[in-house]
Amino acid sequence: MYLLKWKGRFRAELYLVHMRNSQPRTGPPRLYLIPVLSKALDILELLQTENQPKSLEEIYQRTNISKTTVYRILKTFTHRGYLAQSENGLYRLVSRPRKMRFGFGAESSEMPFSEAVRESLSTAAASAGVDLVVLDNKYDAAVAVRNAEEFVRQRVDLVIEFQIDQRIAPAIADKVHAAKIPLIAVDIPHPHATFLGVDNYRVGYEAGVFLAQHAKNNWRSEVSWAVGLEIKEAGPLVHSRITGAFAGIRSKLPELRDERYVSLDAEGLRGKSHRLMLEFLRKHPKEQGVLVAAATDTSALGALQAVREANREREVAIVGQDCIPEALDELEVPGTCLVASVSHEAASYGPQLIQLGMAILNGQTVPPYNYVKHKLVASGARTKKARAAK
After folding, report:
1. Are residues 13 and 62 in the same domain?
2. For the residues 50-68, what does the mean pLDDT come to?
3. In 3D, which of 269, 278, 329 has the Cα closest to residue 300?
4. Is residue 91 part of a domain?
5. Rounded CA gap, 74 and 257, in Å?
6. Cα separation of 96 and 220, whole Å?
7. C-alpha count within 13 angstroms, C-beta hemisphere, residue 188
8. CA dist., res. 169 & res. 233, Å (int)
9. What is the pLDDT of residues 315-340, one digit of tens each?
10. Distance between CA 130 and CA 153 in Å, rounded?
11. Has residue 192 been placed in a domain?
12. Measured between alpha carbons, how far is 66 from 47 in angstroms, rounded to an integer?
């Protein structure tokens, strides 16, 4: 009934505005109405009055509004959570007397990719009319648990969790699940949660194939080592970026022996990646042809710093993940050994998370695993694109 009451108040207020501004002596009264809003209210009123799901065609026939306008109104109301669409395409009214509130545990304000995801989600939430409560997990397991407890205390409608440590994922998921709050996990799977993130094995595989092709094109396939800079605490799914990278290298360079594949736990941190890579290069001062697959661009940039300090740029090739701004700038540097990065399209996370969250709250069935699109960006890609545009 609240929709009908709101509609009545809205039209009464428009009538009062009309009475205050009308000039009956000089011409007919002017109605300050918004036609498309009136049509939208007519559709809501129809669905509420008859109280049963209806198809697009039926609503079009009953309202006599153009089918294109009906379609766009229905999609807008569904996106904003006022309507739900079933699997057979029927629309029904959803009682929602207040705005939805989502809690977002951001990985870290100091991690560029995490910040890009947060900005994307904030923009999408504002567009969808969703209140977003953002807490910074600070790349720290204990902080992430406290933030999850805060979301439960605030009774948000849904939690979106982006934290890196798989070991505390069950504890976070248990707290949220016990409060009967739906959970979406970003990049790192959590129990009871719907997953949204990149296809880790596939992005790793494509990075590995590119590294191997680089070796074939520039070093005549002469490779001494394949090094993976991984994040062990993130668990097996993120580790599959390195597993996939090694598989991609093997597909092109089958002669490289298994003992020449080395994984180093860089924790996704620049400083540790720099230190581990510098130590590795010092242990192998004369060996050429080192392929480095990094789990993140932050690790890739740390490795790049080590390679430059060791003056080994011609002997090393690095591929990162995420396409953060600093990495994209580095890809344009002539002669850089950061030869590519795989973009995880951070800007797409926000719209997909909001759409997924609203679908869950509206009772729709959603897939347990949802993947974002990705693309490999090679060094000099922006320069080549600019030249082609001229």
Report:
1. yes
2. 90
3. 269
4. no
5. 58
6. 64
7. 24
8. 11
9. 999 999 999 999 999 999 999 999 99
10. 19
11. yes
12. 17
